[in-house]
Design brief:
Helix content is 69%, strand content 3%. The protein is an all-alpha fold and 445 residues long. The chain has a single domain, classed as Up-down Bundle (Amino acid/polyamine transporter I). α3 runs antiparallel to α10, α4 packs antiparallel against α5 and α7 runs antiparallel to α11. The N terminus is likely disordered. Keywords: Amino-acid transport, Auxin signaling pathway, Membrane, Symport, Transmembrane, Transmembrane helix, Transport. It is found in: Endomembrane system.
C-alpha cells in the first residue's frame, strides 16, 4: 500500500490493490499518523508490551505448569523464535513495492481477499482478548490496593473491572493515535520498573525467609499434560503483539532497518526484567505462586500499594497500544481527520471507543479468568499470526530466493506451530470448562 510520505495520512479514498476472482480488496490510506516515530520510540512501544503487568502472572501461568528446567528453557527458546518470527514480518513491510501498514494488508497482498478477511478476524480476536485481559489485570490491581486497606469485602472484582474500563476509555478518548503516546511511553516504563522492582525485591526477601518450597508440577498426570500445553501458548503470548505491521507503520524511513533496531532493543532490554521477576517469583513461592505475583508477596503496605497502583496505571497505557488497530480501522472508515480535539472527532472517540471498551469491560467482568485468556489468546490467534502466517508468508514471498533447506525450515515451522496451535486451543478450552465449574460469572477472584 502506498501512503503519504509526510505521514499525514489525511486521505480516506480506498485504493484497489488486489484482484482475485474479480473481487477486489480495497485498502484505504490511514487516518492516523504514520512514518513519524524514531526506532527508539517504537522500541519502547514493543518493550511496553513485553513488560506490561501481564509479566506479574508468568511465574504462575508459565513456571508453575512447566517447572524449572522446561520453564527456563521454554522462555529462552520462545524469546529466540519470537525475535526470528517478528524479523520475518518486519522484512515484508515493503514487499512488492508497496508499504503494508496493516497485518491484513500484507496477508491480502500475498494471498488475496479470503486471507485478508481471515487475518483481520484472527487479529481482531487476538487484540480483543488481550485488551479484555488488560482490563482484568487493571481491576485485579485496584482490588489488591483496596484489600490492603479494607477487609470488609464490600467492593468485588467486577466493580474494580468496571472502574478500570472507565479509566481506559477516558485515556483512549484523549490519545488520538499510537504515535501520540510519546511521553506516555516513558511514564509507562517508570510504572513498569516500579512494580517489577517491588515484586523482585519482596520475592527475594520472602524466598530467603521461607522454608523449603514445593516445585513439583501440581495436578494429575492428565491435567499436567493439558496445563503444560496451555503454558506453551502463554510462552508465545509473552513476547508477541500480533500487530507488528501496525507498529512498524509509525516508524520513520528506512522502515525495515529501523524496525530491526527496535526489535533488537525490545529483546535485549525488555526481556531481562521479565526474566528476573518471573524466575524470582517462582523461586520464592514454588508451586503456590499466584497468577498475580503481587498478591503473593509480603511487605510494607505502602510499598505494595504503590506497586499495584503502578500496575493499574501502566495497564491503562499498554491497553491503548493493543486497541490502536481497532481505533485506526474505525477512524479511517468514518473519515476522522483534522484536529483530534475538534467537537466532531472528540465526540466520535467518546461514542465509538467508549462503546468498544464497554464491551471489553463487560466480557472481563463476566469471565475474569486471566490465565485462561492468556492460553486461549496464544492458541487461537498468537500462534497463527506470529508463527504460522509469518513463516508461510515469508516462504511464499521469498520462494525464488530461498534454498531447499530454507524452504524445508519454514515448512517445518508452519506444520509444527499449526499442531501446537490446535493442541493449545484444546487445552485452553478445557481449562475454561474446568474454571467455569469452579467460578461463576462476575466472580470475585
Amino acid at each position: 500500500m502506498e501512503v503519504n510520505g509526510d505521514g499525514a495520512g489525511n486521505s480516506t479514498r480506498p485504493r484497489k490493490v488486489i484482484d482475485e476472482e474479480n473481487s477486489a480488496v480495497e485498502i484505504p490510506e490511514t487516518a492516523h499518523q504514520i512514518s513519524s516515530d524514531s526506532w527508539f520510540q517504537v522500541g519502547f512501544v514493543l518493550t511496553t508490551g513485553i513488560n506490561s503487568a501481564y509479566v506479574l502472572g508468568y511465574s504462575g501461568t508459565i513456571m508453575v505448569p512447566l517447572g524449572w528446567i522446561p520453564g527456563v528453557v521454554g522462555l529462552i527458546i520462545a524469546t529466540a523464535i519470537s525475535l526470528y518470527a517478528n524479523s520475518l514480518i518486519a522484512e515484508l513491510h515493503e514487499f512488492g513495492g508497496r508499504r503494508h501498514i496493516r497485518y491484513r494488508d500484507l496477508a491480502g497482498f500475498i494471498y488475496g481477499r479470503k486471507a485478508y478477511s481471515l487475518t483481520w478476524g484472527l487479529q481482531y480476536v487476538n487484540l480483543f482478548m488481550i485488551n479484555t485481559g488488560y482490563i482484568i489485570l487493571a481491576g485485579s490491581a485496584l482490588k489488591a490496593v483496596y484489600a490492603l486497606f479494607s477487609d470488609d469485602h464490600v467492593m468485588k472484582l467486577p466493580y474494580f473491572i468496571a472502574i478500570s474500563g472507565f479509566v481506559c476509555a477516558l485515556f483512549a478518548m484523549s490519545i488520538p493515535h499510537l504515535s501520540a503516546l510519546r511521553l506516555w511511553l516513558g511514564v509507562s516504563t517508570v510504572f513498569s520498573l516500579i512494580y517489577i522492582i517491588v515484586a523482585f525485591v519482596l520475592s527475594v526477601k520472602d524466598g530467603i525467609e521461607a522454608p523449603a518450597r514445593d516445585y513439583s508440577i501440581p495436578g494429575t498426570t492428565r491435567s499436567k499434560i493439558f496445563t503444560t500445553i496451555g503454558a506453551s501458548a502463554n510462552l508465545v503470548f509473552a513476547f508477541n503483539t500480533g500487530m507488528l505491521p501496525e507498529i512498524q507503520a509509525t516508524i520513520k524511513q528506512p522502515v525495515v532497518s529501523n524496525m530491526m533496531k527496535s526489535l533488537y532493543f525490545q529483546f535485549s532490554a525488555g526481556v531481562l526484567p521479565m526474566y528476573a521477576v518471573t524466575f524470582i517469583g517462582y523461586w520464592a513461592y514454588g508451586s503456590s505462586t499466584s497468577s498475580y505475583l503481587l498478591s503473593s508477596v509480603n511487605g510494607p503496605v505502602w510499598v505494595k500499594a504503590l506497586a499495584n497502583i503502578s500496575a493499574f496505571l501502566q495497564t491503562v497505557i499498554a491497553l491503548h497500544i493493543f486497541a490502536s488497530p481497532m481505533y485506526e480501522y474505525l477512524d479511517t472508515k468514518y473519515g476522522i481527520i483534522g484536529s483530534p480535539f475538534s467537537i466532531r472527532n472528540l465526540s466520535f472517540r467518546v461514542g465509538v471507543r467508549g462503546g468498544y471498551l464497554t464491551i471489553n469491560t463487560l466480557v472481563a467482568a463476566l469471565l475474569p479468568f486471566l490465565g485462561d485468556f492468556m492460553s486461549l489468546t496464544g492458541a487461537i490467534s498468537t500462534f497463527p499470526l506470529t508463527f504460522i502466517l509469518a513463516n508461510h508468508m515469508y516462504l511464499k514471498a521469498k520462494k525464488n530466493k530461498l534454498t531447499s533447506l530454507q524452504k524445508l525450515w519454514h515448512w517445518f515451522n508452519v506444520y509444527f506451530f499449526g499442531l501446537m496451535s490446535i493442541a493449545a486451543a484444546v487445552s485452553a478450552l478445557r481449562l475454561i470448562a474446568v474454571d467455569s465449574k469452579t467460578y461463576h460469572v462476575f466472580a470475585d477472584l
